[in-house]
Amino acid sequence: MPEYEAVIGLEVHVELRTRSKAFCNCPNVFGSEPNTNVCPICLGLPGVLPVLNQAVLEYAVRTGLALNCEIASFSKFDRKNYFYPDLPKNYQISQYDLPLCRNGYLDLEVNGVRRRIGITRVHMEEDAGKLIHGEGEKADYSLVDTNRSGVPLLEIVTEPDLRSPEEARAFLEKLKAILQYIDVSDCKMEEGSLRCDANISVRPSGTDILNPKTEIKNMNSFRAVYRALGAEMERQCAIWGAGDRVVRETRAWNEAEGTTVAMRTKEEASDYRYFPDPDLVPIVIGRDFVVRIREELPELPEARRQRFIKEYGLPSYDAGVLTSSRPLADFYEACVSAYRDPKTVSNWVMGEFLRLLKVFDLEVTETRLTPSHLVEMLELLKEGTISGKIAKAVFEEMFQTGKRAREIIEAKGLIQISDEEELGRVVDEVLAAHPGVVTDYRNGKEKALAFLVGQVMKATRGKANPQTVNRIIKEKIQ
Amino acid sequence: MELFQLTAHELAEMLKKNEISAEEITRSVFERIHAVEDQVRAYVTVTEEAAYQKARGIDGEKREGKGAGPLAGIPAGLKDNFCTRGVRTTCSSRMLENFVPPYSATVVEKLAAAGAVFTGKLNMDEFAMGSSTETSAFFQTRNPWNLDCVPGGSSGGAAAAVAAGEAVYALGSDTGGSIRQPASFCGIVGLKPTYGLVSRFGLVAFASSLDQIGPLTKDVRDCALVLNAIAGHDPLDSTSVPGPVPDYTSYLASDIKGVKVGVPREFFGEGLDPGVKEVVQAAVNQLAQLGAVVEECSFPHAEYALPCYYIIAPAEASSNLARYDGVRYGFRATPEKGGNYDLLEMYMRTRSEGFGPEVKRRIMLGTYALSSGYYDAYYLKALKLRTLIKQDFNRLFDQFDVVVSPTSPTPPFRFGEKAGNPLVMYLSDVYTIPVNLAGIPALSLPCGFVEGLPVGLQIMAPAFGEGTLLKVAHAFEQSKPYHLARPRLKGEAAEKGLAHAREMSRGGK
Ligand SMILES: [Zn+2]
After folding, report:
1. Residue B21 appears among annotated catalytic residues
2. ipTM score of complex
3. Which residues of chain B have pLDDT under 50?
4. Which residues in chain A have Cβ-Cβ distances shorter than 8 Å to B99?
5. pLDDT digits (tens, 9 = 90+) for A229-240
6. How close, in Å, is residue A124 to chain B by CA atoms?
7. DSSP letter string, A249-300
């Protein structure tokens, strides 16, 4: 059986976090009571007209530039006509033959291999509403929530340049980081502000055969994308391996089963009857507008990673992790500007901080821990007020409560005992209690020393400075 | 003369001199409605109570010495495709029979701010599709000049109401001639402004790239006054053009010596009623008498305007009317008893039962023209033709200040005469349609009669040439006052008319 490789293209929908919707003044916020962020325009009531929110255009251009796209000087909106109860006008305002941005790319590095993934197009469109289906088997109704209709979306379409589920996941992670860096979306897959469909086909590695592809929908996390593509790749390989043919179809990811399943598809091909939206004037984009937005673009993840390596002397891996999200990189830099030991800060941010974010399922911006919390703790650690072990406990409490390190260690009496006289007394007690171990040590058993230090730490509930204890024991036994 | 027979500017003058009150004018118009409405049947909804309230408010403001504009206190009717807050807006369709918008069209807001007293909502062809007001789902409006004849369409209710004195003026919408053709049939002045001069916000869309709102008035001065009130940029309509708007009445005084008038021979050829031709020729001669330089010219792509229009307008309509699906508002088909339709069936039944045949015909035409495989052959080709038609006009306006033609190839026709044959009916708009495709302004004004029925002269100008149109039209009107003729209606039907008006006012609030 030949080795197979995947041919994957992604269609990513990103909700823009503009203040108001794409074509009216309704607030663009998530999680409101159903049908409260609506007006006649986003409801498509008779007679009303859409007017483009200029912020949408600006965000779209920003995105196009960050993805190395050409920005069209002339663009327009088209109507994509189809009937669906969550689509108030029964057409969606979108872009068809003249998208705002095209021919971009994103460079990826997966398992040490650098690859350039083409971005076919980035276009603007409006989101639809949401259907809430009646509960239970007998429920014969569906409710329509139109809060989301008219929310601005970008559709980002890649070339079929991705060759494995790993690359697809890496692409999405990088895309998300960029979109967050340029502040156009919060990219929350669970809230639907980042959605992804994937086209996948397989072929014998190294060939350029184009086999029938399937489109996978309903993936609601990067992990799901990765797993769904893996499962679908396996399925298609098995079909080809058995001498059968893969059929072109739309499939849904079933998270629980870990498989993709064929979706009910219509017999006829979709015909959206696209035509230019006569209610919206064509978009003419001046070069100076594009230049201004390009100048305002923030440092992007790749550039920041390079700078972290150069400026802070961090290993490439650390720099990659720390710059994977803008809030994390901002957090790191805020710490380093006050505590100039980049590697120590990196260890804490990449270690305890990321660990706790994961444990509590929080975003960087959602924590009560600020850079100044970490800096203060690192200073206490450095001056020996607390031990490394206690520092971890303090860090976790700071993370959970938002209290300052000094406040925590004072309240709990966690200040490290460095007082030699006090430690000497504890050492004396430990030595007296374990004469056998003392003898072992004198007879050259190095391990015995560690046991004795441990006993002192235990007696002081971890507050003793281990280096000092070590030295005192040695002095007393000699 | 009774108050309802006067023009807005005449009434405004009397109001200014305190010879009458707004309430008296309003009463005169509603008494007229009650007297003749059962003959004319122009109104879908009468808003009498609100009108009196507004009129009294205007009178109150006047007593307090507040300055009132030239339209303050003057009763005006609205075609029933303008959204009116709290007053049902039906588009003369079952689909929207009970639709009460929570907002008003920008033009309605503007007129309200100018002190207009709204009399109600006027009958029309369903969703503005038609040339005779016969496609209204509710009833037929009759031509006040001959009750056996159609008033034209689709602003037939608006034109008939103004001609019959049931409103001092009215607003209509014009997609392919829907203001000018009924104005011509009813012997009044109708103006389709430049595309983008008047906001379309709140006008229930038929074909968005062609629709434009304009006045139907008794004379040219009223037309200028109403245009003053409704023109101008609207941030709610991105196709409305920014920039200052002139005072259109300032164009009315000047004479037309030396004005260059083009007469395209293609508009005087086959299909033109000989009587209409004679009247319009006489009107053109009259312009020459007034000092205009009249010259024959050519409009080579004229014959393509109609087919081009009947691709573009239905294409846009098929999309604009997709929102009427029974899900959120308006009509929804329901099964006989207790049962449920599934989604597809609900959509199909709602649209089958809610729309009339002409609307369905155009939705199907448009859907077909836009569908993949036919798009290039029809829609794209129509867009190219549209460009050629624009170029024809550009060439003409390099040479001429205005271009004139008959408004309609025939005088008002009888009910049913063309209703059975859509293609014949579509020819009613053959002279008006090119104007919409090019987005330029055009005005129809009374220029004579054929067998007692009015004939209109269409005057076309380059984009934003409304001033020139009004100037030429005003000069003609002053020299040949056909606009002063009034149709004679039977006055004895007051009782029945009242009943009809009451019945129609149930929808209002
Ligand atoms: Zn809205």
Report:
1. no
2. 0.94
3. 492-498, 507-509
4. 46
5. 999 999 999 999
6. 17
7. EEEEEETTTTEEEEPP--SSPP----EE-TTSPPEE--HHHHHHHHHHPPPP
